[in-house]
């Protein structure tokens, strides 16, 4: 039996393995990509659209990705291109970033990935210290991806109250993470 007939009778494993690899890489980096997009695209809905367009483009172009190189800079490059397209379409908006700044932000986010594991550990520790209600609000917003209105409806509050609560939670988490990262850099030292 020739190799050709074996290949045609057996399922092609490469595309399945490629999809698995993409799934793992995307799940590891999508929050960093989202953070980058939201740091440039002010409109929340537009940022989500750009993230979806980025994910689709990454899936479409994944065969072109050089696996010997880091994934994050490559995916941020794809995101940068999608951001620039979105910003050009909406150039009449008053807050539009120039292309150099968008590129600099992508470079910065690539460098941030180095410290990402420590930050994720710190964030996880900080989230675990939150009260149950605060963790529930975070889950509704970031796991279930609900809007402020939907969160308000689910929790029996107003959208404004939900937004303020989320803002306070994010600030508390930011302060906690910064403290923990500072503590990691200077263990046992005077703070």
TrEMBL record:
Residues 25-92 form the RNA polymerase sigma-70 region domain. One of its GO terms (molecular function) is DNA binding. Residues 121-173 form the RNA polymerase sigma factor 70 region 4 type domain. Keywords: Sigma factor, Transcription, Transcription regulation. The keyword Transcription regulation applies. The keyword Transcription applies. One of its GO terms (biological process) is DNA-templated transcription initiation. Transmembrane segments: none annotated. Belongs to the sigma-70 factor family. ECF subfamily. PANTHER family: RNA POLYMERASE ECF-TYPE SIGMA FACTO (PTHR43133), RNA POLYMERASE SIGMA FACTOR (PTHR43133:SF51). This is ECF RNA polymerase sigma factor SigD.
């Amino acid at each position: 039996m020739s190799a050709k007939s074996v290949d045609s009778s057996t399922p092609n494993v490469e595309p399945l393995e490629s999809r698995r690899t993409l799934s793992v890489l995307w799940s590891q980096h999508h929050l960093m990509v989202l953070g980058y997009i939201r740091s440039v695209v002010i409109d929340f809905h537009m940022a989500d659209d750009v993230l979806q367009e980025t994910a689709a483009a990454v899936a479409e172009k994944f065969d072109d990705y050089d696996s010997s190189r880091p994934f994050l800079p490559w995916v941020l490059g794809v995101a940068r291109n999608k951001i620039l397209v979105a910003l050009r379409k909406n150039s009449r908006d008053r807050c539009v970033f120039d292309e150099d700044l968008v590129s600099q932000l992508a470079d910065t986010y690539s460098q941030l990935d180095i410290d990402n594991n420590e930050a994720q550990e710190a964030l996880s520790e900080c989230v675990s210290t939150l009260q149950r209600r605060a963790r529930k609000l975070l889950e509704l917003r970031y796991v279930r991806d609900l809007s402020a209105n939907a969160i308000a409806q689910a929790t029996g509050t107003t959208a404004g109250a939900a937004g303020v609560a989320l803002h306070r939670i994010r600030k508390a988490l930011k302060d906690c993470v910064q403290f923990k990262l500072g503590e990691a850099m200077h263990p046992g030292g005077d703070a």
